Known about the structure:
Blueprint: E1 16-20, H1 65-77, E2 82-89, E3 92-99, E4 115-116, H2 121-134, H3 144-147, H4 159-163, H5 173-176, H6 180-187, H7 194-202, H8 218-232, H9 236-248, E5 270-271, E6 281-282, E7 298-299, H10 301-312, H11 319-325, E8 329-330, E9 335-337, E10 342-345, E11 351-359, E12 362-368, E13 374-380, E14 382-383, H12 386-392, H13 394-401
Parallel strand pairs: 5-14
Antiparallel strand pairs: 1-3, 2-3, 2-13, 4-7, 5-6, 8-9, 9-10, 10-11, 11-12, 12-13
Helix pairs in contact: 1-12, 1-13, 2-8, 2-9, 7-8
Amino acid sequence: MVSTRVGRGAVLGAVVLSVLTVPARAATWDPGTTARAASGAPDIPARPAPREPGAPAPALPAPDTAGLAAVLRSVVAQGAPGALARIDDHGRTYRAAQGVADRGTQRALSTDDRFRVGSITKTFSTVVLLQLVDEHRLALDEPVDHYLPGLLPDDRITVRHVLSHRSGLYDYTNDMFADSVSGFEAVRNKVFTYRQLVALSLKKPRTNAPGAAYSYSNTNFVVAGLLIEKLTGQPVGTAYLKRVIEPLGLGDTFYVHPDTAIPGRYARGYLTPDKAGAPLVDATAQTVSWAQSAGAVISSARDLDVFFGALLGGRLLPPARLAEMEKFTKVDSTTAYGLGLRRRDLSCGVSVYGHTGAVQGYYSYAFGTKDGGRTLTALANTSNNAKVLSTLAGTLESAFCGAPKAADGRR
Length: 411
Ligand code: HEL
């Protein structure tokens, strides 16, 4: 796979911030054509359909590049070896990186580095399933039991319940990673079948009746992987490749399970142990078999920005299918979950749509505006560090709310 890159080169120990005022790359998606994948995947609409005809897109303030750089410095001060952010805004690109990609060699983190995206994978899985809905091969309100007889103990659990985390299926990773380092080391090189992961979940009672409550669970997206494989007759990696990666030209995006290596140039990931002061654990090499279709995709900031720009801009799914993804259940005062898609309501009143990821060694955020015209991806190459996770969320404020107007930092 080939990707076009510009303006590489972060300098160790300093924030590197570049603003490209020309389109940042050769177009990898040609809006004048439709893409039909070799697998028989659907035609993808050539142009984004207007979401609300006649409604002007709300004007966004310019990204706060100084604020973005400050957030990344704080993330590193709080224990991440490195942090990066990339904003793609209607052909303009803003990039910033701080710290190192590799603690051994001290190589500076670059905004071109690949990384593990964790649960951002859930959005890839959902796109594939909604394309299958569009092909009339899957119905969201049909019980999972219809497609995978006997897999789940309750035939009231529908595909929609699974994709919106309302199935009640217990999250087996709660037990797997009760102790972060020993839990991780126990599965680092393991290869699970999807059915083994579902069986781990079913050892525990369901958290709620089907549809009754939101309860985030990786088990749901393991079921999603089984559905993809059953309906397409292909491994999930092939479905991602033929339906998303190739049509969008995502040259940095891979699904290599059960291989343990990240192809090409990448940021190493460092797991923060539960014991305060214990040294970071290099978690880069792992099968991610405990997650698979719930969290094993590898990508880059550029590719995630393209992916969410295309999804939100209507170039991966027809409007009616995207609208299904955007039917949100409230999670808390500032977040909501649709189908494989999060919404975050920012302090300035702007809502952004995307997903977050937490996999050993990597925290990531990838979000875009409603129309996909501006997208942000941010990464810290550590995990299990709550301060880093919440500070990194500040990149969303800088990217979409602009510089604070008030002296007290309010926007
Ligand atoms: S958790 C989340 C995030 N999601 C979920 C999924 C993902 N990641 C996981 O389930 C990994 C859990 C273990 C991660 C590990 C660490 O921080 O490296 N933590 C521990 O071992 C804690 N004992 C909901 C945060 C999401 O944002 O969707 O990704």
